[in-house]
Amino acid sequence: MAKPTTLRGSKLLVKIGDGGSPEVFTAPCALTTKSFGRSAGVNEFNVADCDDPDAPIWTERVKSALSSTISGSGTLAQESLDLYEAAYSDQDSRNVQVTIDYSVGPRTYEGKYHLTTLNITGEQDGLIQVEIELQSDGAVGIAA
């Protein structure tokens, strides 16, 4: 068995665009956990067997919608607070890039996202923590 080539978590980078021209993408500082998920919605149809109508019916599925979410958590860095607040308050979605940096070069996914969750918590004897979630607004693809 060949050993797989693994990647460190620091090789997953989330960058939020500022909407400018040219657009500047900024990675929020101190996010220690990041997640990039894609999902597909399906419509289900029960299809009977024409040759054996008494047989159990099989469910067939048709892919109907695609969606993506990004989440992250970590220590709140003062340098990123304005970025979070602006993206959360903005009525329009923002361009976001998710990059996986691996040995043959980076793979970057790009699309528009709404920052839908911004949780900031803190304990008396600890550091302030942040949790964010972004939901796609349209197509997300691999950047050229």
UniProtKB/TrEMBL annotation:
Domain of life the protein comes from: Bacteria
One Pfam assignment: Phage_tail_2
InterPro entries linked: Phgtail_TP901_1
Name used for this protein in its record: Secreted protein
Species the sequence originates in: Kaistia geumhonensis
